[in-house]
Amino acid sequence: MSGQRRNFGASVLAIAVAGALGGAGLAGLALAQGKPESLLPPGFDDPAPAPTPRQTPAPRPAQGPPSAPGQPPLAQPGPGAVPVDPASLPPLPEISREDLARLPSLEQLENMSTEELDQLLGLAPKSDIPAGARRALTRVGVLAVDEGGLPPVALANQSDKLVRAALNGTQGPLVSRWGHILLRRTLASRLAAPLGMDPVEFAALRVGVLNRMGEYALARAVVQDIDTANWSPALTQEALAAYLAAGDITGACPAVRLQGSQRQDGEWVMWQAICNAYAGETALSATQLDRALFRGAAPRVDVLLARRFAGAAGRAQRGVNVEWQGVDDLNPWRFGLANAVGEPLPAGLLENALKARGGAYYARSGALLPMLPASQRAPFAGRAAREGILSADAMVDLYSEVYADPAASEEAKAHAAALREAYLATDPAARIAAMQRLWADGAKLGGGDGYGARVLTAFAAARIPATAENAGAAGDLIAAMLAAGLDRNAGRWGNVVEEGSMGWALIALSSANGAAVGQGAVESFMGDDASEGQRKSAFLVAGLAGTGRLSEGDAGALAGDLGFDLARKTRWTTAISRAAEVGNPALVALLAGLGMQGSSWSQMTPLHLYHITAALTRVGMVAEARMIAAEAVARG
Description:
By secondary structure, the chain is mainly alpha-helical. The chain contains 33 helices and no strands.
């Protein structure tokens, strides 16, 4: 086989050189061929010549002037033709040594895939999609307006500088679960690019934010809305990150094989080898990975994982033992490939990675990896739920699988049993007690402030009767309901909770009727607020003022008592207020996401919450403003 590939590579090189040197080389190749040998019996291919008809001699053209001495004779033009002077023809291109040096060597030819050889010979198509099936770039996204998406032309007339700055500036997760959901909805909408921005660049910026938020599956869906022939280097890099984190290793192969050898880094070489293996070129894939291992293009364990994954594409592949000796750190490639091939990670490697900076990546990715059993995804699910990646429905489904999994850990089984009791216990007090056990273990369900446990119990809390007997747990129950947006169920407690209590504050912010709130009721809440720096009270005032439920005078006076100024202006407050004035919901959502970055609500200011809720209310996103304000008080 290697000899056949060498002969083939030599032939391709000869053809490439012949094309570079002009038609003379090709003519030489043609003359070198012998006359075809006939397979017919004698006489079948040499019939008797037919009699030659008598021909009339054609008139001879008039003789032109004789050529000058030393000059080649000029061709005689036909009737009406303009004579051509050879001196006026452009000279033939010259072949320099640099041009010859750029021709691939035999070794390089042997290492090329079919697509790369087609590109070398000029045979590769510009797109792998037929012309009639190619998609336009006028609208990019997966969420239409009738599916909850934002208006397509919301950003079409906006300056590209502001949109680019907002997307580039959103580098981390959002403190708010509902803010995350709002920003995700915006980034997934079918939007036209801002004025002066390339649509592919706009898509790459959006996909980058989705990746940094942990929305890898949605990021993959957005890049799949763009034909691979239109991918830019930036979009390709973000797409590879999304495919890897989503566990869809071969999903990136159309783009990897189409782009060929445009990149030479180790990760790209491993992607190419994997994609070549699944395209049927297993020998080439093995050669590429062997060469990458020999030359140190990537760490040994990374190449071995790639070899294990590529080996699944063919029956004749040799076995691969992944060697973890000396591997002290985890990276996305190792995490994604190890899970994809079912290779267990060494004890302590993942735990140390989760504790290190950037460890949230593994929790966000692991919570959604389809190849992992529910018992392995459960420890990651709490973070994903509190950040907005997983819904309450998804959390209940996950723990239902854990309950039925005999291999689940004792702690995971205890949480699943408590959730089952929160739904099925006959006594409401027993159901509340089961939920309280889950809330107390909230840190074990995903770390942070335990808000993931509230998301898990949202629908169970909505089943508790709104009676005076259960009023003592009303604040926690309402907070759990609002984690899933169950504002109507929470509103049933309006006549049960006391004015100034936590339950009252959450209903005042989340209720759809928009009833005004007096200064005295807020002061009653402030008197019982034991949060650090009365942060909950400050968020309550900011949320009520932003949603228009507290008069401007009362809001200013209460804010002064709490030590902040709602009238203070910054560049960000000016930008989001201006976006709300012109009625642009997409730009308001992008700027709101920019202002809600952080890992804890302690990083959020009442001023930011006020301007976010006010801007959202002004552009018609009142429901989102209510949920964000209520979440701020519940988690503040």
